[in-house]
Amino acid sequence: MPRTVPEVHTDLVLEPRDVHFDWTGLPLHWIPDEPFATHTINVLHLLLPEGERWFVEVFKEALPLVRDEQLREEVLGFVGQEAIHAEAHQQVLDHLLAQGLDPRPYVRQIAWLFQRVLGPKPRLTARRRRENVIERVAFVAAIEHFTAFLGNWALNSPGLDRAGADPTMLDLLRWHGAEEVEHRSVAFDLLVHLDPGYLRRVRGMLLGGPLLVHLWVRGVRFLLAADPSLDGRVQPSWKAAWHVARRGMLPDPVQSLRSGIRYLKPGYHPTQEGSSAQALSYLAGSPAARAAAGAH
Ligand SMILES: [Fe+2]
Ligand SMILES: [Fe+2]
């Protein structure tokens, strides 16, 4: 099946960077005195290890369906990058646990969602299995739109620096964000390759967008309640989110919603969002990415 979008990324070579972060000195509130902003961003660590491992499984299932050598290479590069992202965020979860914030009850629910509800269905016929894989690729493509949006935000978030956010956590967020911007087209191009239909794309977003918001809100509530230093004193609210976003520590909720709507435009392509040049420039200077490059 021919690809129906312009070959904007024919020279894209995705390199998994085997980064490592030292969390020993990370304070529980790594944005000083900002537990709400800290835990709203910490939801990433709750969702991504299971979520990105699931992306890897879906893409491995989709690989035999790919009939384009360049796209195949991109899918393999994407899988390599996402596998490292999942492990990097897993290490933050382990650090939270060591600090007395037990993330496991929430993570168990996320694992159930990705492994059971959205996992492979072994008893399907070959035709139905193909349908099921493409449906899940559409879901990944919708989520990848948001990871690129968030990555682009992380690369352009001086508010976090102004607030004195921990530099190692900022490097994790921006290294990951830069790789999300770098590979932002892969899931979408894979979806178009397997099914160029508009309906499937829309369905992926209509399911994925609200689910992501729901999981995020639940995640913030969970972390604020589980944080042993807060004793339930900080209550999450949309008003608090607006306030923190205005000070540049979170993405603007309206911009985030608008971004989700842009995905539904018939002429949408991920390259319209974010800048590959900026992402690569960050990766060239990222302490973790530089250390990973030096280790090879
Ligand atoms: Fe990722
Ligand atoms: Fe990604």
From TrEMBL:
Hydrolase listed as a keyword: yes
Superkingdom, natural source: Bacteria
InterPro entries named in the record: UCP07580
Molecular functions per Gene Ontology: hydrolase activity
Key words, A-Z: Hydrolase
Protein name listed in UniProt: Metal-dependent hydrolase
Source organism of this protein record: Streptomyces tateyamensis
Classification lineage: Bacteria, Bacillati, Actinomycetota, Actinomycetes, Kitasatosporales
